[in-house]
Design a protein that fits this description.
The complex is a heterodimer of chains A (271) and B (266). Chain A has 271 residues and is α/β, with parallel strands linked by helices. In chain A, the strands form two sheets. A five-stranded mixed β-sheet of chain A has the order 5-7-6-9-10, sandwiched between helices. Chain A has a four-stranded mixed β-sheet with strand order 1-3-2-8. The N and C termini of chain A lie far apart (51 Å). In chain A, strand 9, helix 7 and strand 10 form a beta-alpha-beta unit. Chain B is α/β, with parallel strands linked by helices and 266 residues long. Chain B has one domain: Rossmann fold. Chain B is built from ten helices and nine strands. In chain B, helix 2 links the parallel strand 1 and strand 2. In chain B, helix 1 crosses helix 8 and helix 4 crosses helix 5. Chain B is globular, with a radius of gyration of 19 Å. In chain B, 47% of the residues are buried. Classes of the chains: A alpha/beta (271), B alpha/beta (266). Strand 4 of chain A pairs parallel with strand 2 of chain B.
Chain lengths: 271, 266
């Protein structure tokens, strides 16, 4: 994380692929989403954010490499692809972008050899005077504000949804099946999948909070993104959580059971 | 050397000197005007100057990219008027590798102290040289962590008193001084390895020659050139600059002898 924060403070564009395995520690090599906090909230020192893309298919794994480099160059900020051990080993049909679709550029700040007409370029993450460090932080915060416009998410059957599942990455793939199973039973369930987990779709979730009875966040961890969902809805509706850890994956039926039991308990309260 | 010369003594300040005299010495133009923050007597200032002088003389200011370490010379980029990057602690040779791979026709060097290159950065150092990266690694060995308050380094001498070895370094407890330049000679990627000094004029001249050779080898894409400079740390060693020279000659050089350790085989 020291190196990551060094890159970030030096404003060096780069793309990091985090194919998350079960942890903490050496842990397992099975899929997990346990690095959500690390990816979106930090883990290194200082006030900082990465741009974090959460693919849910092999196609997106490929596409986000290109999107990631574009975003990294645009904002001079590290970008992370937050994947997991299952997506990382999955085989699916992929259409690769055309060769040369990422333009080769040499930005003015790059250290390519000092030219007579300009001052020497220095890339550093060291700002030893606190006054200067504060100014660097203020500039970074302005950048994070601008990055909010890059928020991306996908909605599945939310138009008439009375219950909303919220999940990213592999969990969202599993949730799609749960939506189908629930709708077969006549329960109007929708799914919101954040594609960027930083920036996060707080505003859209807040809107949906006025529409649905409750939300259920599904993750392969102890409950990390659920905190962002709760922040987003500002207490308007209950936000529940189901997850498994250590490399274990929920089945669509596990999620359906949880959804039904929460649904029943809500009905019991309402009666 | 056709610049006009001016006297700098107080009384005749700015008076133009007879132009028939040749200018034999001046501040390298690739050094910025920023005053060094180094302690009086510290070898870093001399090495900075010699390095920039060589870049001036070779006319490669626009073609050279340097990588600064963490340590006393972390601000090297304030003094060297070339494009520079500052690396995380110990990672200068890895960053230099990246720069060189992207810009293979530029001259790239890393500038590192012993706490950086021979301690936290040992892995990067060994593998950079093992890959034979076409860069110059300039290694300033003063046997101590200067910036952080004179702690013992892997290069500190047996018996050397530092803030973390107040009774002197003991091999049984913390091992022997590491001779990293000697180790690197074993690697096929190391093309030229030499150990130099800067505490006397002869040493400075030899360092300059070693630097010129290294840039020439880099141009020819021969592999890694590694120059160790056995230097001093008046503040960390708790000595006057003059005392440090005696210490280098009597204590440091028997452990780290001056001279070429690996020269190109024809």
């Amino acid at each position: 994380m020291l190196i990551l924060v060094t890159l970030l403070a030096a404003q060096l564009p780069c793309l990091i692929a985090n194919v998350v395995r079960g942890g903490p520690g050496l842990g397992t090599i099975q899929p997990s989403q346990g690095d959500y906090f690390q990816a979106t909230k930090g883990g290194g020192h200082g006030d900082y954010h990465l741009i974090v893309l959460a693919p849910s298919s092999v196609q997106e794994m490929a596409d986000f490499v290109f999107d990631g480099f574009r975003l990294a160059e645009k904002y001079r900020n590290p970008v992370m692809i937050l994947s997991d051990g299952a997506l990382g080993q999955m085989m699916e049909k992929v259409i690769l972008p055309e060769e040369g679709s990422l333009p080769k550029t040499t930005p003015a700040w790059a250290t390519t050899g000092k030219k007579k007409e300009r001052e020497h370029n220095v890339i550093t993450s060291l700002f030893i005077q606190p006054e200067e460090m504060e100014q660097v932080n203020l500039r970074l915060q302005e950048k994070y504000k601008a990055i909010q416009s890059e928020v991306r998410y996908e909605e599945i059957q939310t138009e008439d949804a009375e219950i909303l599942l919220v999940a990213f990455g592999l969990s969202s793939r599993i949730c799609q099946k749960t939506v189908d199973l629930a709708r077969e039973k006549g329960i109007k369930v929708g799914l919101l999948r954040p594609i960027t987990v930083y920036p996060y779709p707080y505003a859209r979730l807040n809107e949906l909070a006025s529409q649905v009875e409750f939300m259920l966040t599904v993750e392969m961890n102890a409950g990390q993104m659920v905190e962002d969902v709760r922040l987003a809805v500002e207490g308007k509706v209950p936000v529940h959580f189901i997850g498994r850890m250590g490399g274990m994956i929920l089945s669509p039926e596990d999620i359906l059971h949880k959804l039904e039991s929460v649904h029943e308990s809500h009905n019991a309260v309402n009666v | 050397m056709n610049e006009k010369l001016y006297l700098e003594d107080e009384e005749n300040l700015g008076t133009q000197v007879d132009e028939s005299y040749d200018q034999v010495y001046c501040r390298p133009s690739t050094l910025t005007d920023v005053p060094f923050h180094y302690c009086p007597g510290c070898g870093h200032s001399v090495v900075h100057k010699v390095l920039m002088e060589v870049i001036d003389e070779l006319g490669i200011q626009e073609e050279t990219i340097g990588v600064a370490p963490v340590g006393c010379s972390v601000f090297a980029y304030q003094y060297m008027n070339i494009d520079m990057q500052e690396a995380a602690h110990g990672r200068a040779s890895a960053v230099a590798t990246g720069v060189k791979r992207v810009l293979p026709d530029k001259y790239v060097f890393s500038y590192q102290g012993d706490g950086d290159l021979a301690a936290i950065g040992t892995a990067e150092t060994i593998h950079t040289v093992n890959r034979g990266e076409n860069i110059l690694m300039l290694f300033i060995n003063n046997g101590i962590y200067g910036m952080t308050g004179g702690q013992m380094a892997p290069t500190s001498l047996i018996g050397q008193v530092t803030s973390t070895s107040p009774y002197g370094r003991e091999a049984a407890q913390v091992g022997n001084p590491i001779k990293i330049a000697d180790m690197l000679c074993l690697l096929p990627g190391a093309y030229y390895v030499t150990r130099q000094i800067v505490h006397n004029p002869n040493g400075v001249r030899k360092l300059k020659k070693a630097l010129i050779k290294s840039f020439e080898y880099q141009k020819q894409k021969k592999g890694t050139c590694f120059i160790e400079v056995v230097s001093n740390c008046p503040s960390g060693w708790k000595m006057t600059p003059v005392e440090t020279i005696k210490y280098i000659e009597e204590q440091m050089l028997p452990m780290y002898p001056v001279g070429d350790l690996k020269v190109p085989q024809n």
